[in-house]
Design a protein that fits this description.
The protein has four helices and no strands. By secondary structure, it is mainly α. It has one domain: Helix Hairpins, CATH 1.10.287. Helix 3 runs antiparallel to helix 4. The longest helix is centred in the C-terminal third of the chain and has 42 residues. The radius of gyration is 20 Å and the shape is flat.
């Protein structure tokens, strides 16, 4: 019985650490605020447009991709700062590559958003203009 209890206690601790990391990113990373605002707008638009489940799945995976890239980049920056407090060319490379990963994810998410949200929004816009 202690093994089962210890398992659940250790999982609770793991979740606590994960949420602490999540809060750190949201609290300290300016781009995380941009991601949060865009995420909220996309989710609201998807509800408003009553998108099918498959579109929701793609949007949610894309949103998760961007957030995951941001979280990994933040972790990478922290580890690089710890390992190399002084300026070093390789530290810069590590940070720049991490930032590039976030950029790739963000640009991809814009394309996915346009492909999924664009046609129904365009249809509504055209219907509004034709009235």
């Amino acid at each position: 019985m202690d093994r089962i209890r210890n398992f659940f206690v250790s999982r609770a601790h793991a979740f606590r650490h994960a949420f602490r990391g999540w809060w750190f990113v949201v609290r300290t990373q300016r781009n995380a605020w941009i991601h949060a605002i865009v995420t909220s707008l996309v989710v609201l638009a998807a509800f408003w447009l009553r998108l099918p489940m498959r579109d929701w799945a793609v949007l949610l995976l894309t949103i998760a991709l961007v957030w995951t890239a941001e979280f990994i980049n933040t972790a990478l920056e922290a580890v690089v700062d710890l390992a190399s407090p002084q300026n070093h060319p390789l530290a810069k490379v590590g940070k720049d590559v991490g930032a590039a990963a976030v950029l790739i994810a963000a640009l991809t998410s814009i394309l996915v958003g346009l492909l999924i949200l664009g046609p129904p929004l365009w249809k509504l816009f055209k219907a509004y203009i034709e009235k």
